[in-house]
Amino acid sequence: MELINIDYKGLSFDKKIILAVGQFDGLHVAHLEIIKKTIENANINKCNSAIMTFDPHPDYFLNKREKLGYITPLDKKISLLESLGIDYLIVIKFDQNLCSMSFQDFEKNILNKLNIIKIVAGFDFRYGYKGLGNVDTLKKQYEIDVIDEIKYNGVKLGSNLIRDFLEQGNVKEVYKLLGRYYSIKGIVETGNKIGQTLGIRTANITLKDDYYILKTGVYGVYIDVRGKEYVGVCNIGNNPTLNYSERRKLEVHIFDFDQDIYNVEIIVKFVYYLREEKKFDSKEKLILEVNKDIQNVKNKLVKR
């Protein structure tokens, strides 16, 4: 897959494409329907498939909601789209000029610079100043496939629903909506080695602002290390019992693992929520509870 990261003024593209356009924050199962239809159309028309998205998220730029990160940060989005077989990813810088551009000028200055055979978009896609452009205005100039609304338990399946579940710690539901585990990637840092004093070695990651906020607490997880998957237990929080931290941390204990992985990138996949983070009266009570957590996960999760 070729990545085209550009502002709209420098956009120029001659190859015939089927274009899917949208923010694709979650890359959830409804988004996957759009991508599937895009690739199908590209195969039928013997041309390339392309995704157009925007960075930063327009909602953050316009202060429509608090900047709490992304369900799928851009680097993860790039790797997922590549694995799905998309030929081109066009990332347009979202700035004040784009924000104030009418939908007619969006078509003129952006879409018309592409050799579009067909556009694929969700039923609620909007573009241009105040979102006045929509799939109906697109139909006046382009051939378009519209993906109808998909519901989950009677509610629109979308990124807002996934964000709600993440804030609740309901990662089992998130898995159903994403079609994959919600995951956080990071570099293992040298910590204060508190875990070793408890007899429970942990890998520590500083939580980046790129990732959408996840409920504090203890989770059963899978961990990818150097291309191999392990089982473990993870705590996200402030360490209220020992070594309290103002900034939330991610600590993960990897089962049956004794490698030195400082400065190594790992991926933590959240499978289920065990309990809330607690402040214990003593170190001994903390150790007892953590060992219960470990046994809980060992009983429920197995190596795949």
How would you describe this structure to a colleague?
With 304 residues, the chain is α/β, with parallel strands linked by helices. The protein has helices at residues 29-45, 58-61, 74-84, 96-99, 103-109, 135-139, 159-168, 171-178, 194-197, 283-300; strands spanning 2-6, 16-21, 48-55, 88-93, 115-122, 126-127, 133-134, 144-147, 151-152, 155-156, 182-187, 203-206, 217-225, 228-237, 249-254, 265-275. A six-stranded parallel β-sheet has the order 1-4-3-2-5-8. Strands 11-16-13-14-15-12 form a six-stranded antiparallel β-sheet. Helix 7 (159-168) runs antiparallel to helix 8. It starts with a strand and ends with a helix. 31% of the residues are buried. The mean pLDDT is 91.
Structure summary:
With 304 residues, this protein is of the alpha/beta class. It has 2 domains: 2-156, 3-Layer(aba) Sandwich (Rossmann fold), CATH 3.40.50; 181-300, Riboflavin kinase-like (Elongation Factor Tu (Ef-tu), domain 3, Beta Barrel), CATH 2.40.30. It is built from 10 helices and 16 strands.
